[in-house]
Amino acid sequence: MPPANHAGPGGEGNEGDIQAFNHLKLSIIRGWNHIMELIVEPIFQEFAKKIELKTYFEITPHKPMENFFRNCLAFSDPGFEVRGVDLDNSNSIDFERKKFQIFLQEVARTNFKKSLSLDYLMKELSKAVKATVESLEISIEKAKVMNEKKVLEDLMIIAQIFRILDEDEEE
Predict the structure, then answer these.
(1) Exposure winner among 22, 29, 55, 90, fewest CB in 10 A?
(2) Residues in CB range of 90: below 8 A, 6 or more apart
(3) Could you give the CA distance from residue 45 to residue 54 in angstroms, rounded to a whole number?
(4) pLDDT in tens, 8-29
(5) DSSP characters over 86-125
């Protein structure tokens, strides 16, 4: 992953660092899109109900990554609320997933804040990844206890992807 230095990813720093961090951002978006495609399977909604969650999307902790992007990207309004197609029914089990998908579209179009160093961004991303893995581990443990093999396998793969991302950042 990008080496740490004091130039912001959108500023005067090493162009290679800037490109590497933007590539990482796009990789994270692709990863989340893949996760969202995977967890729409009915088995995840059934598991969510069994563990007393409203929707399958609550199994995958997206808030740490959303908070990372809100803090580190140069949105004109970092606290903006996602608006878009098919968000009329807030009681739909797909509501939060659709909101996050639209949010990721905004992330893809938004640059990092020029005032932030790559070192800072890497530390913040590492915190978000660790929080994501810790939350996933809660669902993994529940899947183990409930002997939900397919859910368990998929959640373990998702957690491993995030662990690899964190390991890459530490290099």
Answers:
(1) 90
(2) none
(3) 8
(4) 444 445 566 667 778 889 989 9
(5) T-S-TTSTTHHHHHHHHHHHHHHH-PBPTTS-HHHHHHHH
